[in-house]
């Protein structure tokens, strides 16, 4: 009887430990975000650290938190996407939509004054510019995102009765890898893009085929589970080949260092 009682006690303790190990912490933020993982550190009245399924560690101040609860761990048979979508913005299965600071529209009125001993004159010209650079990606693995990028730029300059227009459209794939497990994640990326360039100068039309590649890196600052601000620096190489057989220019190569800042949304 005594041995049976001891065995039942040990079994109860084992089941209790197992049950506790099958629960995870759920942190509900004031902005509506839900972070699921294990709280690894908590400073009463100040902050806490929670580790998500992919090993990322997020730090939140107590005044950012609405409430904290626990829930049973998902069954092993559930899909990775279902398990990870609340765990980390860079977890496998997450969707990422990005846009850079190239998203802009400008309409500028310019005035140039000529002043010399032989000629005093001035003329005005209008410049209209528009650019849009969206990207949509999918995390094929924790930290590794495969994306489709697009880039569209156009400009129009009007000088008196003359008009000059040009536009560029590029599309292509990219691969980005995020490092680390904190709110600040370094990343590296590579991309390839292909498209076309068109110009019109006072009724004369020209076009060219454009392709290029780029390599770079940067840092993503995660404001919360769903939003990051990205700063990057990279090297770009673009080649433009005129479509007109009679063109005097056979090829134009543009290359150099580029800085980029943008915003990404994860869901």
Automatic annotation (TrEMBL):
<protein>
    <recommendedName>
        <fullName>Outer membrane protein beta-barrel domain-containing protein</fullName>
    </recommendedName>
</protein>
<keyword id="KW-0732">Signal</keyword>
<dbReference type="InterPro" id="IPR027385">
    <property type="entry name" value="Beta-barrel_OMP"/>
</dbReference>
<dbReference type="Pfam" id="PF13505">
    <property type="entry name" value="OMP_b-brl"/>
</dbReference>
<dbReference type="InterPro" id="IPR011250">
    <property type="entry name" value="OMP/PagP_B-barrel"/>
</dbReference>
<feature type="signal peptide">
    <location>
        <begin position="1"/>
        <end position="19"/>
    </location>
</feature>
<feature type="domain" description="Outer membrane protein beta-barrel">
    <location>
        <begin position="113"/>
        <end position="243"/>
    </location>
</feature>
